[in-house]
Structure formats: C-alpha cells, structure tokens
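Why do we care about 3D structure at all? Because function follows from shape, and shape follows, mostly, from sequence. That is the central idea of this module. The next example makes it concrete: a single protein chain, its amino acid sequence, and then its structure expressed as tokens.
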Amino acid sequence: MQDHHVVVVGGGFGGLQLVNDLKGAPVRITLIDRRNHHLFQPLLYQVATTLLATSEIAWPIRSFFRDRPEVTTLLAEVVGVDSKAHVVTLKGGTTIAYDTLVLATGATHAYFGHDEWEPVAPGLKTLEDATTIRRRVLLAFEQAELETDPAVCDALLTFTIVGAGPTGVELAGIIAELARTTLPKEFRNIDTTKARIILVEAGPRVLPSFDEGLSSYAHKALEKSGVEVRTGKPVTSCTAEGVTIGETFVPSRTIVWAAGVQASPAAKWLAVSVDRAGRVVVDKELRASGEADIFVIGDTAAVMRGDGSPVPGIAPAAKQQGSYVAKMIRAKLSGQPAPGPFHYHHQGSLATIGKSAAIIDFGWIKLRGWIAWWVWGLAHIYFLIGVRWRIAVAWSWLWIYISRQHSARLITQRETMRED
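And the structure:
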C-alpha cells in the first residue's frame, strides 16, 4: 500500500472520475458514499416517468474497482471534517485520516425556505425520489379509475411540475406522452388523454439557460404535446390538495419539484464561505479557502469561469473537475509543477422534450427537433458506464419508440422519501 492516503467523499461523476484518473498513482484511496451505487443522474427522470428501470441507470460502486486493490470502498455517511487533525468523521463516530481530501457530495432540493412542501412535492435527486414520483404518477391514474367524484378525479389527473429547467421540461414532456400515448387503451372509466400536465416557471420563459430561440421552440413543443406552460408567476403554496400559482389555486394531487437545488452540508463541515446555494467557494485550483489539502468539486463547489459566470452543475463539469484534481495530486506527489488554474470546457447543453423532440446548444451550432433528439440519445448512451448498460438502455428506448409502451410501469413499493 502507498503512504499517501486520498479520501474521496461521494461516488458521483466527479468522485468516480477522480478515482479512475488516479489509477497507477502512488496513492491508496478510500471512496466513501452513503449509497452503494453510482447513479447516472441525467436519466433519473426516465425512471420517474416509467421509461427505464432503476438497474439501467445505477450500478454498484464496488464493481468499478474490483481490480483496483489500492481502492477501498465504504458504505458510510460523513458527518464532519477536522481539517487540523486531517480526519473525517463518519456517522457512528468512526474517524478516517487523510492526506488529501476530496469532497464531491453533490446537491439536494431547495424549497426556498418552504421545506414543509417536500412531502407533497418531492424533488428528483436519488433513486428513492424517482421511484416515489413514479409511484405517485401511476397511482394517480389508478385512483382516478375508481373515483366517482368528478372534481376529485380531475385533481387526480392534474400533474404539476414546478420549475422549467431541463429536468422539469423533460418530466412534463414524458408524463404527457404517458397520458396521451401509452395509457389510453388500458383504462375504461377515465380518459387519460384529458389529463392536465402543468409546467410552472417563475421566470419569463422555459429553459432559461438556453438560447431564446431554442427556449421558444421548447415552449411550443411542450404545448403541442399537451403540456400547459405557465410562466411569470411563482408557486406560493403546495399542499396535498393542490398548488397555488401566484394567487390562483389549482387542484392537483401530484406535484413534482424541479425548481432549485442546494449543496450538501460540506461547507458546514469546513466552516468556509459559501454562495447563495450553500456551495463551497473554491479557489482557481478547486481548493477550499485556506485548505491546501482539501479539494471540493461537482455540485458541492461554486466554481467560477474566467468571465465571472458560474460553471454549470452538470455531469461533464464534475468529470472535468475530477480529472483536474487527479492531475493536481499527481503533480504534488511527483514534485512536478501544478497544471495551473482549472478551466472548464463547455461541451454543450442538451434537453429533451418528448419523443422526437429535443434541443441542443453547442455554441457554434444549435439543433432542434428529431435530429437533436437522436443526438441527445447517442450522447447519453455514450456516457453510460459499460457496454452492458449501453445496450440495455438503447434496447429500452428502441422498444418504446416502436411500440409506444413504457416498460417500467410497476408499482412495487410503499412510499419512500429522500433521507434527511
């Protein structure tokens, strides 16, 4: 075993990329995550909307490093960091010493001071969240089939998605497709095509991070698919009975939150400066302020580009940061100069709206429609880990495209919610 001990907290895109890029380096690595699986989060909404099964987008972390004896994987939860003593504390009191610490603990939902909304408006960050949303969506149709009160039936068949970023747009588009294409012939007492899918955005337009032309296309494509798009007014209340948009109450028994995120408590462990989302403010080498041996990456970090704009919280950014920190560690151990400040290379923004409808912004070229949809699919399959899962996801998508039937429509569990 090597002497230099690298502790990585978080098995997401950034953490895994870092460990992969340290292969062959003179280090021993401990990778800690409170779940035993790596999650391909860009496709999480497809589990929530019955397109894919959980096993198609999540894989055991241990399986990635079975041939890496220098890597130890721990299923545990970090609850504190003592930077002076160079140790992390696990839930239960166990401590682990480190020489270099990398925090890649991700983010969770942000309810802007209304955490009481979470039970009725779950967000989408974990497999548990996805299966909870899937269960609620499917049960809404089942309960509507049994309901004799028209008003209650209408409320059951009204689905509200709060937030029109990529996740919200993708959720709305697929739920509309489920109601209008997949389910109509399977119910006798209700007309699923009359289901209301409402997408709410407090800002002036959907997909605000995209070019206005692409945003306008997405808006029209959503409305064409049957989604009611409401912009310019925020959600002011969420209850089990419905949602209030501005001052208007809409009866809706299924609400999904896609309006914002906040970072994990890593900043509290370090007692360092944070941005408005609670992310650790890092220097140009992705280090926490005043901490030479602690790096923070991914959604946990507030990383700024040269023009002063923030690096987006997406998978390619986290992977680039993981690779960069691996280079920093290698340079330090070999006595070579550091690679210089971190520079983010944007590879493009992608969002899908439904079958054969997507938008892509590569900067130098912008795509929309079915061409963008195919490019979007190929890009996601390419980034999936392992040939087996690429084949599984490609087959599932091909079957859905041909048959118009969503394959993961099983209601198999009781209610589950994200752990605190």
